[in-house]
Amino acid sequence: MTELIAQPAVRLFMTCAAILTLKMIVTGAAVGTTRVFKGVFISPEDYAFAGKTPLGPDAQVERLRRAHQNDLENILPFFAVAFLYALTGPPLVLAWWLFTVFTVARILHTVCYAMGLQPWRTIVYEVGNVALVLTAILLLVKVI
Q1: For 21-37, what is each residue's pLDDT tens digit?
Q2: Most buried by CB count within 10 Å: which residue of 5, 26, 32, 98?
Q3: What pLDDT band is residue 144 in, cutting at 50, 70 and 90?
Q4: What mean pLDDT comes out for the span 107-132?
Q5: Domains of the chain with bracketed CATH
Q6: Residues 62, 63, 68, 73, Cα dihedral to 10°
Q7: 80-110: per-residue pLDDT in tens?
């Protein structure tokens, strides 16, 4: 394990993975906190427990929930592809650009999603998506 951690691209991946994991935790907590703050819950038993009448969906809660769902759809594939790519011993500069750009793009995507900033949300999403696709292609090139 120590030899694996000593590889620069693997260490970079681990750093980005930790940041992205914390970002997903914060986004998920923001969904829950906003639900409680606004009194908008998921299920009837939550309303019953809070002594409230069920309300319709809240725009901000749904916006945060969709941002969190988008993370699950994009960050989890990054974990797999970037980890495997890091194991191939890529040039650190290239791995840095791919992993860091993806990580920053995902953070900015959530901020833009939460604030309703278009076209910026789509732009940063696509920047991150390009980094992910390039990582997957480079992984395939290495192993084929």
Answers
A1: 999 999 999 999 999 89
A2: 98
A3: very high
A4: 97
A5: 2-143 (1.20.120.550)
A6: 100
A7: 999 999 999 999 999 999 999 999 999 999 9
